[in-house]
Write a structure and sequence with these properties.
The protein has about 675 residues and is of the alpha+beta class. About 25% of the residues lie in helices and about 15% in strands. A six-stranded antiparallel β-sheet has the order 1-10-11-12-4-5, sandwiched between helices. A four-stranded antiparallel β-sheet has the order 15-16-20-18, covered by helices on one side. α8 packs across α9. The longest helix is centred in the N-terminal third of the chain and has 15 residues. It is elongated.
Length: about 675
């Protein structure tokens, strides 16, 4: 899955305040980074004006009477440049923002000209002094904790080892755009840029069309907030004309700010084995980005309205939402130690290479820190690791912490996995959890686990099986299947299914609206189908044939239960012997509501539909003469009466709950249940 990077600046009274001049010649670092006590904020115009020079959508306004020091006059730039596929894009003179020395001195942050050496020198000094050997201990992941105010490294481990940047590399694309930012430059969107963006697989688009005209400033804002491919393509075309040239600029920019061991091969941040960076380099990049007011003042906004002019001359507006704000739960909650305020967060990752997170925090005494973590295993909570790294500032020692799966009551489990209290619901109550399939899928992770299988010659062979589960349960799943694999019986696993977004229920089961535990990636079925791991209706029923080699043995059930998982064979209303789940069984209750529709016939108006077909299929499987036509005809009624008589039921021809229970237990299947 292609994870989009997220960046946010949490706006509050203590957050970065920005002094605004002309954006493309801004030289002032955010007020909280400079020690300036004046408060400034970004306003979003509720009714954006047309995107023309002198009428920007994003404006600044003073909250106090403090007056910032005026900016030096900017070098004049062209008022309008058009980027089209038939003409070379205009050359934009880079106007790199720099930290105003007097402001930087207030907090001890080195001037920008020194930033390429600041973190590296501090990192080298910490190693020489032996600090790195003491802090952290027992760490196996790349990390770095840097005091921005004092210019010292407080903790580091493998900080210069290569990691895969993934979507976080988009921040270098942002830096190149900021280095070449001309606020007044008007860009005409080309057909080439639109077509190239649309052709990408899994592309994210803001909806620009060929002929639209937008200021470079608003285009950068759009990309900063959304990471959209069409905004990126227009920026690439405008700044460098081709992707290759733009990537070269990314690598040059990295070297110019002191990123010593980074290589970029694309501007979109997608995974590439040849692309790499380090936690050290990313901290240098974060520090550099904070010197640009356009970045520092907007990267954490929930949304920004960006205006532009359509080809027909009308004004249009895009509400650029921070799409990655929703990944907070996925990557872990925002855990910051008491006494600190989070100012900025950049997180991202994919399953193959792990998670990375870089945050900037401010302590109660005004000191600023960057904490960076890279290549964290995807099943871990990266924000929890960041919190524990930040606690080094308080004198604690960081160490890698293994995931401990909460095994308390159902409320504890629901809070851990879904962030909600447990609801003991019935078949006609919908459970809380992931609202949509696309939302649920973002929380899932596919892994391979070791299993035994039976080959065509009847021999046990070792192989692996891929299964998709909630990423917070991955460590537990790995442990369980390693233990199953190690059993002397070499239990064979033919088929498995974990995550699948659906309601509970199946053919015949009605009045059921709650979501299956499979929808949360919190349940899995083993050897379902014709392997005697079946569904039996009625408490206590268990009709399995344990001589079937694929029938789940007690030793496997014991392993799941020892790791805190529940077996569906213990359901109070049925046996679902193929099923194991993490979230608990108590919610499964009918509370007087029959789970199956009562079926009957009327010669003038017979019942019809798939539930009748389900009934007829089961009767036919048991040898009764009936057609599968979905109509409760007199012939079907007679077959029901014969079935009821044979099994000691009242021969009414009406399929009530007791008839359903007997019929299902003799046919041993549901299309799916829980």
């Amino acid at each position: 899955m292609k994870h989009k990077i997220r960046w946010r600046l949490l706006c509050a009274s203590m957050i970065i305040a920005i002094v605004i001049g002309n954006i493309h010649t801004s030289r002032i670092l955010a007020a909280d980074l400079s020690g300036d006590d004046s408060e400034w904020f970004w306003e979003v115009s509720p009714t954006p004006a047309a995107d023309t020079p002198g009428a920007p959508v994003i404006t600044s306004a003073p909250v106090t009477a403090s007056t910032p020091t005026p900016e030096p006059a900017a070098t004049p730039t062209p008022a309008s440049v058009t980027a089209t596929p038939t003409s070379a894009p205009a050359t934009v003179e880079p106007t790199v923002a720099t930290v105003e020395p007097t402001k930087a001195a207030a907090t001890g942050i080195p001037a920008k000209s020194e930033s390429s050496l600041a973190i590296g020198a501090a990192l080298t000094q910490s190693a020489v002094s032996g600090k790195e050997a003491q802090n952290p201990l027992n760490s196996t992941i790349p990390l770095l904790l840097y005091d921005l105010t004092e210019g010292t490294v407080l903790a580091s481990n493998q900080a210069t080892d290569k990691i895969t940047p993934n979507r976080i590399s988009e921040m270098m694309t942002v830096l190149v755009a900021l280095q070449n930012l001309n606020s007044d430059l008007m860009i005409t969107v080309s057909e080439t840029a639109v077509a190239n963006a649309a052709a990408l697989s899994s592309s994210t688009l803001s909806g620009f069309e060929a002929g639209d005209v937008i200021s470079m400033k608003n285009l950068v804002l759009c990309y900063l907030m959304t990471g959209s491919d069409d905004a990126r393509m227009v920026l690439v075309e405008t700044i460098a004309s081709t992707e290759g040239k733009f990537v070269s600029m990314m690598n040059s920019a990295a070297k110019s700010i002191g990123m010593k061991n980074s290589k970029y091969v694309s501007s979109d941040g997608s995974y590439n084995a040849s692309q790499y960076t380090t936690v050290y380099d990313m901290c240098v990049l974060v520090r550099e980005l904070l010197t640009y007011s356009l970045f520092a003042g907007n990267c954490g906004s929930a949304s920004i309205n960006v205006s532009y002019t359509k080809i027909d001359g009308t004004t249009a507006s895009i509400k650029c939402r921070n799409k990655d704000a929703g990944y907070s739960q996925i990557y872990g909650g925002e855990n910051i130690p008491s006494g600190f305020t989070q100012l900025m967060e950049i997180s991202g990752g994919i399953q193959a290479t792990g998670l990375s997170q870089f945050v900037v925090v401010k302590s109660s005494d005004g000191s600023l820190y960057i904490a960076g973590i890279g290549s964290l295993p995807f099943e871990k909570d990266v924000s929890l690791e960041t919190e524990r790294l930040l606690e080094v500032i308080l004198g604690n020692t960081y160490y890698d912490k293994e995931q401990v799966l909460p095994l308390g009551d159902d409320t504890v489990r629901y809070q851990y996995l879904l962030g909600t209290d447990v609801v003991y619901y019935t078949v006609d109550n919908k459970a809380p959890g992931y609202a949509t399939e696309s939302q649920a899928a973002q929380y899932m992770m596919t892994i391979s686990v070791p299993v035994w299988q039976i080959d065509s010659n009847g021999n046990k062979v070792s192989t692996t099986y891929s299964i998709t589960m909630n990423r917070k349960l991955i460590t537990s799943i790995r442990k369980i299947f390693n233990e199953i694999y190690a059993l002397d019986i070499q239990f064979p696993i033919k088929v498995m299914k974990g995550y699948g977004y659906r309601q509970s229920g199946g053919s015949g089961l009605s009045n059921c609206t709650f979501m299956s535990m499979h929808s949360y990636g919190a349940a899995l079925d083993i050897n379902y189908g014709d392997y005697d791991n079946d569904y039996y209706l009625g408490a206590g029923n268990d009709l399995r044939d344990m001589t079937n080699p694929y029938c789940i043995p007690q030793s496997v059930i014991d392993i799941f239960e020892a790791n805190g998982w529940y077996w569906g064979g213990d359901f109070g209303i049925c046996v679902d012997s193929m099923h194991f789940e993490y979230l608990g069984l108590e919610y499964l209750t009918y509370q007087g509501n029959d789970p199956f529709d009562t079926l009957s016939t009327d010669s003038e108006n017979p019942m019809k539909g798939y539930k009748i077909e389900n009934l007829q299929d089961r009767l036919k499987e048991l040898g009764f003469s009936v057609n599968t036509d979905g109509v409760y005809s007199s012939r079907t009624k007679q077959a029901v009466i014969k079935f009821q008589t044979k099994n000691g039921l009242e021969a009414t021809g009406v399929v009530d709950y007791k008839t359903w229970e007997t019929l299902i237990n003799l046919t041993h299947y549901m299309s799916y249940v829980f």
